[in-house]
Amino acid sequence: MTDSQVRKARYDLHNHSTASDGELAPAALVAYAAASGVEVLALTDHDATAGLAEARLAAAAAGIGFIDGVEISVNWHKYLVHIVGLGFDPEHTELQRGLAGLRQMRMERAEEMGRRLEKLGFTGALAGAQALANGGVLSRTHFARFLLDQGYVKTLQGAFDRYIGQGKPGYVGSDWATLAQAVSWITAAGGQAVIAHPGRYHMTATKLRALIEEFKALGGIGIEVVSGSQDSVHTRHMAELAQRHELYASRGTDYHGPSQTWLNMAALPVLPEGCVPIWSTWDPPL
Ligand code: AMP
Ligand code: MN
Ligand code: MN
Ligand code: MN
Fold first, then answer.
1. What is the predicted pLDDT for the residue at 129?
2. Phi-psi region of 47 (alpha: psi -120 to 50; beta: other; left: phi over 0)
3. Is the CB–ligand 1 distance for residue 156 below 6 Å?
4. What is the pLDDT of residues 48-57, one digit of tens each?
């Protein structure tokens, strides 16, 4: 393949299923990806790998490539940062122990969120969010869907803006993984660590550079240059940063389902010229 073909191939390496806060079951997500022209898909549920086996089988049946993925919640200074892991061994003990700890913290956080939302008058919030999660990893998204379904807010965004976004009355902080832990769990399991949607953290250029430098020193190698939740100005900026810091570029819609999406998979732009795709390090065929 030429450089341009490598850059333009339809890799979509950040997406969610019902194993966390996505709306589609893993197999349905894969079917949607295949119908959208995706050639290689990664499933990257929050702090969970439970959807990978189903997705991998579905991808084989649909004739598209599949990469095991995860999106790990990290506290870095005052920021909530997400680190995507790609191509690891899902059975790896250290990785699984780390993710199990994060899920335990999610349960404790959800109970406290439930108490706070009750006090705000939203009866049954925890049970409602749990019912919506239906066994998947419990996320703020499920609380937001509960508030929306009950008519307490008009949009999902409104639930975050008024009640469960950082600093709002239903928000509960959590002791997520450190950056070092997230990168080491991923790399110990044989995977590649990628900074997810860097444009969403509202960091100054100096802070973002510090994050990138620390991440690289820990063994991280990639950054999402194209993300469904980032605009084209951010994409250009992230492409420059990737080149300057010699990070591989990744691309992912961060798709959460038909009613909670920034972009459809088919509409996600390709990587800008000059980026070195993270998939250029992979052994084809996938
Ligand atoms: P959690 O990891 O449980 O704290 O939940 C964070 C998730 O909430 C993210 O992965 C997004 O899917 C979702 N989310 C965060 N902010 C917003 C927002 N403003 N609008 C809609 N969804 C959001
Ligand atoms: Mn999410
Ligand atoms: Mn994220
Ligand atoms: Mn995500």
1. 98
2. left
3. yes
4. 999 999 999 9
